[in-house]
Design a protein that fits this description.
The chain is of the alpha/beta class. The chain has three domains: 197 residues, 3-Layer(aba) Sandwich (Rossmann fold); 78 residues; 73 residues, Arc Repressor Mutant, subunit A (Orthogonal Bundle), CATH 1.10.10.10. It is 52% helix and 12% strand. It has 15 helices and nine strands. Strands 2-5-6-1-7 form a five-stranded parallel β-sheet, sandwiched between helices. Strands 3-4 form a two-stranded antiparallel ribbon. Strands 8-9 form a two-stranded antiparallel sheet. Strand 3 and strand 4 form a beta hairpin. Magnesium ion binds next to helix 2.
Length: 371
């Protein structure tokens, strides 16, 4: 069986150890410290939190996913779902949870997908920031009986809700009053998270400690991947690992995706060299091709030139004379406008004035197709 996992939370034997980060997070979770976990997409933020929580005896993790959350009702519902999913004996607690939330007029229903009982708020319900306090009361109450940590994942999306400032302010006040439970805020839209936690004008400024999650250290990750390849009798020389990390730009999820493709298109006892790597990359292109084509189709000529320039020359100085010349763009201002559009389309992002592709394989595909 293919031993590589990507695009999902990994824990236990699927988790390549990150001792320093785990230790830092462990101390925070154990002492009820509130923390923000900041890092780029797919660097392993959620996995790190799950794995750390798993290693703390008796700690229950309530994981609320706030991705694309639209309203305060939605926040309340996702927190309620998270509380219920974290309970091992959910049927026996469901009534007490519904009772505790009676001010929100909840109903007990069966989840049509899983068949498990769940608590739903009426669609007409309009939860206010004050109403949300009932959900936090419930969390606090459970925290008295059980060691608890609460993960608010993709927290930056809460900013798009109408009345977000008041909501964020009330969450800040609430978590600060509540000392026993560690609240962990994670998010992958870096500039949005930075603004929420580092901007002096934000309610969360200095309210939490910030932990940065970078890529996995190559040497440790190589050993982790190597054990898997060896168990399947694939032979991977060091030079191929270097190429894998370069192609995937050290993103842990993309590294694992590439390794998974290598595994799928190689055989027992095969030596993994440049040809095998190319085959694996082609395999990824084949699965992603439709999506990639849809990404480039709406681009204008200048945006396309700019994208190709970034793929070829890297994103360090996309308005320099050399970049403009090699990309065939006349004015720096046009390059800037094209870049802004590529960022808005989430094809590339700006990291400390260096423009990078969200998906390193898309970059490789651009190079192969248009380079
Ligand atoms: N410690 C690790 N060991 C091995 N693989 C890892 C590790 N951390 C992350 N990965 C790889 O990255 C993938 C994504 O992990 P995870 O979902 O935790 O990242 P994330 O930063 O929360 O992503 P997102 O930005 O999408 O929320 C995993 O499926 C796995 O392939
Ligand atoms: Mg995540």
């Amino acid at each position: 069986m293919n031993p590589f996992r990507y695009g999902e939370v990994v824990t236990g034997k699927d988790f390549c150890d990150r001792p320093a980060l785990i230790e830092q997070l462990r101390q925070g979770l154990e002492s009820g410290r509130n923390m923000a976990i900041v890092g780029e997409r797919r660097t392993g933020k959620t996995s790190l939190i799950h794995e750390t929580a798993r290693r703390i005896r008796g700690l229950q993790l309530v994981h609320a996913q706030l991705w694309a959350v639209k309203s305060i009702d939605d926040v309340a519902q996702r927190l309620i779902d998270a509380i219920i999913s974290s309970e091992r004996r959910r049927s026996s607690v469901i009534e007490s949870i519904a009772r505790a939330l009676s001010s929100l007029r909840p109903r007990i229903e069966l989840d049509p997908h899983t068949g498990h009982p769940c608590v739903t708020l009426a669609p007409t319900q309009r939860v206010t920031p004050t109403g949300l306090q009932a959900v936090f009361d419930l969390i606090e109450d459970r925290g008295r009986r059980q060691r608890l940590a609460v993960l608010l994942d993709e927290f930056q999306d809460i900013r798009r809700i109408e009345g977000a400032d008041a909501l964020i302010g009330s969450i800040r006040d609430r978590i600060q009053r509540q000392r026993r439970i560690a609240f962990v805020f994670a998010g992958s839209i870096r500039h949005a998270m930075e603004q929420m936690f580092r901007d002096p004008g934000s309610p969360f400024f200095k309210a939490v400690s910030i932990i940065e999650v970078e890529s996995l250290e190559r040497k440790r990750f190589r050993a982790f991947l190597g054990r898997r390849f060896r168990a399947g009798q694939r032979r991977v020389p060091k030079s191929s690992y270097t190429r894998i990390f370069t192609l995937a730009e050290d993103n842990p999820s993309d590294v694992q995706q590439l390794c998974s493709a290598i595994w799928d298109c190689s055989e027992v006892n095969e030596m993994i060299g440049p040809d095998q790597l190319q085959r694996a990359l082609d395999r990824i292109f084949a699965t992603e091709r439709k999506g990639y084509e849809a990404l480039v189709r709406p681009l204008t000529d200048i945006q396309m030139r700019c994208l190709r320039g970034l793929a070829k020359l890297g994103g360090n100085q996309p308005q320099s004379k050399r970049f403009l010349e090699e990309s065939g763009i006349q004015l720096a201002a046009s390059a800037k406008r094209a870049l802004d559009r590529l960022i808005a389309l989430e094809l590339v992002y700006d990291r400390d004035t260096n423009y990078k592709f969200f998906d390193p394989f898309f970059r490789q595909w651009i190079l192969t197709r248009f380079g």
